[in-house]
Design brief:
Shape: globular
Strand order of the largest sheet: 1-2-3-4-5-6-8-7
Order of helices and strands: EEHHEEEHEHEEH
Structural class: alpha+beta
Low-confidence stretches: 1-8
Distance between the termini: 22 Å
Strand content: 25-35%
Oligomer: single chain
Amino acid sequence: MSTTDARTAALTVRPLDPFKDAELLHGWVTHPKAAFWMMQDARLEDVERAYMEIAADEHHHALLGLHEGEPAFLMEKYDPAHRELVGLYEPEPGDVGMHFLVAPTDTPVHGFTRAVITAVMAHLFEDPATSRVVVEPDVGNKAVHALNEAVGFVPEREIRKPEKQALLSFCTREQFAKAVAA
């Protein structure tokens, strides 16, 4: 996947390497801005282990997002019929779950996070089998709710996950296309 935005230049993704990328990810997921990622106290070994488990899981995948060739965001996609949301809603064929995390920076670029979520969604919809993207952010994460809305997500209801109270939201291919065309 690659996309170009006037504000952000090229965004691409590559498979995450749990060994090579663990130190980088550790800095991201333990940063105060990543509080909703719920890994604030993780050790390097914890991050490596978590992403080794994802790499070995046929229903969960992690990708490293690059901005002009440099690591800039993390993207996870998962099958909600098998991970994260099992028993919490009735999955439909073509549902894909998603998480994303933008790397912390001392020099933020206006509109970058929105460009990232747009690129993530475009990547997910590149697969013709994907008909709907499902997210379950923490109900308190107002910033991500606004980003989700900007790319077409519609909240359905709050759900209780073991680790958080979450806002279950969906975005169809059509809703995404309409939101990014606006």
